[in-house]
Write a structure and sequence with these properties.
DNA Binding (I), subunit A
Length: 97
């Protein structure tokens, strides 16, 4: 015991009794989050439950642009196609929808 005190009280003598345990604070019940269904895509672009998703007006415009300019590569086609798309009015864009 004297050796333990000589260490400056860094080591405490074992009392032999049961140690007290800390009791964890009670957790609040988890709040229910709204259930969000994920859209599961299947092979071939089908969406769960039926038909394929319709292509956007931009996709339809791009297909027609590539038909007009078949020699352009994808990267070379995107910039002039997007410039031309921005010039179109809402009524003209609606034709591609």
């Amino acid at each position: 015991m004297e050796a333990m005190l000589a260490l400056g009280g860094a080591i405490k003598e074992y009392s032999g009794g049961a140690k007290k345990r800390k009791v964890a604070a009670k957790k609040k019940p988890a709040t229910k989050k709204p259930v969000v269904k994920k859209v599961v895509k299947k092979k071939g672009g089908d969406i769960e439950g039926g038909a394929k998703k319709k292509p956007s007006a931009w996709n339809n415009f791009l297909k027609s642009y590539w038909k007009k300019h078949p020699k352009l590569k994808f990267g070379d086609c995107m910039k002039p196609a997007s410039v031309e798309w921005k010039k179109l009015s809402v009524a003209q864009k609606a034709k591609f929808a």
